[in-house]
UniProtKB/TrEMBL annotation:
<comment type="similarity">
    <text>Belongs to the aldo/keto reductase family.</text>
</comment>
<dbReference type="InterPro" id="IPR018170">
    <property type="entry name" value="Aldo/ket_reductase_CS"/>
</dbReference>
<dbReference type="InterPro" id="IPR036812">
    <property type="entry name" value="NAD(P)_OxRdtase_dom_sf"/>
</dbReference>
<keyword id="KW-0560">Oxidoreductase</keyword>
<feature type="domain" description="NADP-dependent oxidoreductase">
    <location>
        <begin position="15"/>
        <end position="258"/>
    </location>
</feature>
<dbReference type="Pfam" id="PF00248">
    <property type="entry name" value="Aldo_ket_red"/>
</dbReference>
<dbReference type="InterPro" id="IPR020471">
    <property type="entry name" value="AKR"/>
</dbReference>
<feature type="binding site">
    <location>
        <position position="107"/>
    </location>
    <ligand>
        <name>substrate</name>
    </ligand>
</feature>
<dbReference type="GO" id="GO:0016616">
    <property type="term" value="F:oxidoreductase activity, acting on the CH-OH group of donors, NAD or NADP as acceptor"/>
</dbReference>
<keyword id="KW-0521">NADP</keyword>
<feature type="site" description="Lowers pKa of active site Tyr">
    <location>
        <position position="74"/>
    </location>
</feature>
<feature type="active site" description="Proton donor">
    <location>
        <position position="49"/>
    </location>
</feature>
<protein>
    <submittedName>
        <fullName>Aldo keto reductase family oxidoreductase</fullName>
    </submittedName>
</protein>
<dbReference type="InterPro" id="IPR023210">
    <property type="entry name" value="NADP_OxRdtase_dom"/>
</dbReference>
Amino acid sequence: MKTIKLNNGVEVPVLGFGTFQMTDAQEAEKAVRDAIQAGYRHIDTAQSYMNEEAVGRGIATSGVDRKELFVTTKIWVENTSYDGVMSSFQRSLDRLGLDYVDLLLLHQPYNDTFGAWRAMEELQAQGKIRAIGVSNFSVEQAVNLAEFNDVTPQINQIEINPFQQQTANIVALHDEGMAIEAWAPFAEGKNDIFTNPILTKIGAKYGKSVAQVILRWVIEQDIVVLAKSVKPERMHQNLDIFDFELSDEDKAAIATLNDGASQFFSHADPKMIKWMAGRRLDV
């Protein structure tokens, strides 16, 4: 599988398996195991998903050597401080049943991000984390973190889909030496994305599904992308995107779908910040 090289030399499989909203432990464990057996080598979870234990069991029972896998987890807002990272990261490792993770992200740009980042720098230096990054940070927030600390974020995981294309932000982050990872590439099915006439037409040209077209569109921008499904047949289908290329005409057509706004919520909305500050996970 194609990989993206981060600014510290670590390589990330360009297509990852997401586990957001997989809260049923048995379903999550089976989905992760099925995904790895289907060919995924990049697994993404988070403290706030409340499924790290199940993800760990899926990894352990997959039959694939740990060294072949790229595992990501994320620090939740209540743990975003120096002490919070130091304590909660070890609990994440314990739940995952791992000695290290390949990528650790600050899940949201709130609370003491500078203190948390210093802890992550230390853990990376100790070899417990191969790469460190952020999630849902604006370009300004990511650059601020980079300029006033020793380590530039290696990746920023942000919402990217045909309705929220973030073209200018992608260019700016790449210019700063930060890789980009896309969450919600299918916009969780919003706006009838899977029957969108433009995407459907492009898919028909190549004998591909709308989902495959979207994933191909993302990786052709040198962006890591996360796809989620609990159905093995969909897992295999989402992996089958390396045998075609989109034309300039295709990309121009997809560009017309851009609304330029989140399909979920604004990270600048004070109400959302207060909601996240009040969401206690005890993890």
